[in-house]
Design goal:
With 324 residues, the chain is of the alpha/beta class. It contains 16 helices and twelve strands. It has helices at residues 2-12, 21-32, 44-49, 56-65, 77-86, 102-105, 109-117, 132-136, 147-152, 166-176, 195-204, 218-221, 230-239, 254-260, 288-297, 306-322; strands at 34-39, 52-54, 70-74, 91-93, 123-127, 140-142, 160-163, 180-182, 209-212, 226-227, 244-248, 265-268. The strands form three sheets. The chain has a four-stranded parallel beta sheet, with helices on both faces. Strands 6-5-7-8 form a four-stranded parallel beta sheet. β9 (209-212), α12 (218-221) and β10 form a beta-alpha-beta unit. It is globular, with a radius of gyration of 20 Å. The relative contact order is 0.17. It binds 1,3-dihydroxyacetonephosphate and iron/sulfur cluster. The site of iron/sulfur cluster has 14 residues, from α6.
């Protein structure tokens, strides 16, 4: 994938950028009959030009419903791949093919196949942050907004493998009282938050409510008064009486929080070191410029074999049916 990505990138940046990228992208959107779907972790300009912004579940649903001919996915590879699984006949573009995900990478297909084969009586529930190959080996997909609900619908006596995120898996275990067999994957961004720094921030801002994404470690989650997917965190900030929030997830979402609750204050949870590593290095590979070139040149395009797509579609459809 890496070599292809470099070749694709060179091919996609051959000329001068238009002065007004926003207008140029709008006109390419009409030309392609395209819809731009963006995740909350994208840079503010991309969020502002998107037709739809959402969490993984909302984006999968939007991809399922769209009547556009092309989907421009401003997110990471597994999200664009999910859109392609649901829309084999549409052109699905990802501005930068290198926009992967550490969590998806922490679950290599051959190793996972062996793990699954060692536990043949287990049902496989996989978090959507995984490759199409892992989805194809799964029984049901879930996202951070429906994982608890999905696991609760599975009969209690049925043993379950939960992959690839051990932190979300542990959170689901706590919420459901179920014993899940966890694949030991994790997200580099959500594991970077420092418990010590969150505690220090809470002392400096005693009125602030700490909120966190379930991909964070237990040591961070225990300081949060609300835990949820990106969409759930956003909704909570609007509904809560609190005026200040310490936000333990990728800070890209603060753009929407600020827009929807301008009178409130959002403090990004600090990483362990004094770096910007609470920003997802994969999500941030997409830029407005790359989005323009992708639309202009209709590449990089997401493709996959029809066998994998059909096998990955089945557990995706089960999730969509179980989360209405
Ligand atoms: P959401 O499903 O909450 O949007 O999370 C996606 C993700 O990648 C979190 O790191
Ligand atoms: Fe993957 Fe983590 Fe980035 Fe989400 S924040 S896309 S889980 S690396």
């Amino acid at each position: 994938m890496f070599t292809t990505a470099i070749a694709q990138r060179e091919k996609t940046q051959p000329g001068e950028l238009p002065l007004d990228l926003f207008t140029a992208i709008e006109s390419l959107k009409k030309e392609l009959n395209a819809v731009i779907l963006a995740h909350y972790y994208q840079e503010p300009d991309i969020q502002d030009i998107a037709d739809f912004i959402g969490d993984s579940l909302q984006l999968a649903k939007a991809a399922q419903k769209t009547s556009a001919d092309a989907i421009v996915f401003a997110g990471v590879h597994f999200m664009a791949e999910t859109a392609k699984i649901l829309n084999p006949d549409k052109l699905v573009l990802l501005p930068d093919l290198n926009a992967g995900c550490s969590l998806a990478d922490s679950c290599p297909p051959e190793e996972f196949a062996a793990f699954k084969a060692a536990h043949p009586d287990h049902l496989v529930v996989s978090y959507i942050n995984c490759s199409a190959e892992i989805k194809a080996m799964s029984d049901i997909i879930c996202t951070s907004s429906n994982a608890v609900k999905i696991v609760e619908q599975i009969p209690k006596e049925q043993p379950i493998i939960f992959a690839p995120d051990r932190n979300l898996g542990r959170y689901v275990m706590e919420q459901t009282g179920r014993d899940l067999l966890l694949w030991q994957g994790s997200c580099v961004v959500h594991e970077t938050f420092s418990e010590k720094k969150i505690v220090e921030l809470k002392i400096v801002h005693p009125q602030a409510e700490a909120i966190a994404h379930p991909e964070c470690e237990t040591s961070v989650l225990r300081h949060a008064s609300f835990i949820g997917s990106t969409a759930a965190l956003l909704k909570h900030c609007q509904n809560s009486n609190a005026k200040e929030f310490i936000v333990a997830t990728e800070p890209g979402i603060i753009h929407q929080m600020q827009k929807l609750a301008p009178q409130k204050r959002f403090i990004p949870a600090p990483p362990m070191n004094n770096c910007a590593c609470n920003e997802c290095p994969f999500m941030r590979l997409n830029t407005l410029e790359k989005l323009y070139w992708a639309m202009k040149n209709r590449t990089p395009e997401i493709t996959m074999s029809e066998d994998i797509r059909l096998a990955a579609l089945r557990p995706m459809q089960r999730m969509l049916e179980m989360s209405v």
